[in-house]
Amino acid sequence: MRSREYLMTATPYCILTKMGLCLFVQDGGSLPPKAAHAFGSSKTGEMRASPLAVPANAPSRKKRLELDDDLDTECPSQKQARSGPQPRLPSCPLTLNPPPAPVHAPDVTTPSRLGPYVLLEPEEGSRTYRALHCPTGTEYICKVYPACERLAVLEPYWRLPHHGHVARPAEVLAGTQLLYAFFLRPHGDMHSLVRRRRRLPEPEAAALFRQMAAALAHCHQHGLVLRDLKLRRFVFTDRERTKLVLENLEDACVLTGPDDSLWDKHACPAYVGPEILSSRASYSGKAADVWSLGVALFTMLAGHYPFQDSEPALLFGKIRRGAFALPEGLSAPARCLVRCLLRREPTERLTASGILLHPWLRENAIPAALPRSRHCEADQVVPEGPGLEEAEEEGERDMGLYG
């Protein structure tokens, strides 16, 4: 008999184990052709899991041109009406019955059981939880979405073949109200590394940036525009912090053809391209991703953003003009690559696949053991901190990357 510790309520679930699909429904269901092709065969059964309450004040995962935690200013939300049709996702093909009303909803500050996982405390103000896989003791990150978004959340993974620098959920549990995606817990992210290390030596920066560019090129090749691309979205899979993956495809836009035109204004202010700030009806999503990657590269090499100001209007004015000063001491190939990515005209920028062919990355193809950089910029440097994740939010209002 199945253990009762799994749960309080009977809820139908769809389980994707290491992206191999196993469908659990009470009244049957079917998978779309893409899902069946991507995840293989399915089987049916039952599962019990405890409900999880999501904080009422948790922000939506969709962000427009409003301030996120990568810039310490207050920026009014800017939203432009779409001037053309946007691709619409088909309705979700999974047939799931609503679960019976739970006896009570567990407090999110206490551990909650969900199948073989125990969900621990959430990250402040987010829908992300620490999770422990009880059978193995492995720690995961659990991202929680409304169940109505399950197709939008999973479709990018159906579209994208496996790649060494793009993370995929180890398991997905889909209920009638919430979707739970479990990712292996990373060892920090690029944003934290740059805050602690200030400027990175060129060989080390090239080794890390090559992995970031490879992830972007793979996504573009298979019809995904990442949007909202920034250093924080690249996380380390090893304790030595040498191997990077794109943490998820949460904000990716799935293209329906070769045209990558987008209409929505969706980006982090520090990384937004000038064309997104203009009055144009649409813009190239892939070129906007390349601009954001250029901002990331500049920040890795300089220790601060290329465009900075505490006032959003002044910041956006600097981005529109596209004028920035490269730090002294950079090699000519490094300076060339940054300029090739941060061009005001989108059509003049390198493509993601073209970045991998640039001489700077080819010259630094086999980096040696890298010393720690001790260079410190006098203007808006990234501070040293006792703990990456602990000190990051506390210090960002005073100094660092935020102007």
UniProtKB/TrEMBL annotation:
PROSITE patterns: PROTEIN_KINASE_DOM. GO terms for cellular component: nucleus. Its main location: nucleus. Residues 387-396 have a biased composition (Acidic residues). Signal peptide: none annotated. Residues 37-101, 379-403 are annotated as: Disordered. It is found in: Nucleus. GO terms for molecular function: ATP binding; mitogen-activated protein kinase kinase binding; protein kinase activity; protein kinase inhibitor activity. One of its GO terms (biological process) is apoptotic process. Pfam families: Pkinase. InterPro entries: Kinase-like_dom_sf (IPR011009), Prot_kinase_dom (IPR000719), Tribbles/Ser_Thr_kinase_40 (IPR024104). The keyword Nucleus applies. Keywords: Apoptosis, Nucleus, Protein kinase inhibitor, Transcription, Transcription regulation. Residues 114-361 form the Protein kinase domain. Inactive protein kinase which acts as a regulator of the integrated stress response (ISR), a process for adaptation to various stress. Inhibits the transcriptional activity of DDIT3/CHOP and is involved in DDIT3/CHOP-dependent cell death during ER stress. May play a role in programmed neuronal cell death but does not appear to affect non-neuronal cells. Acts as a negative feedback regulator of the ATF4-dependent transcription during the ISR: while TRIB3 expression is promoted by ATF4, TRIB3 protein interacts with ATF4 and inhibits ATF4 transcription activity. Belongs to the protein kinase superfamily. CAMK Ser/Thr protein kinase family. Tribbles subfamily. Interacts with AKT1, AKT2, MAP2K1 and MAP2K7. Interacts with ATF4. Interacts with DDIT3/CHOP and inhibits its interaction with EP300/P300. Interacts with APOBEC3C. Interacts (via N-terminus) with APOBEC3A. Interacts with RELA. This is Tribbles homolog 3. It comes from Bos indicus x Bos taurus (Hybrid cattle).
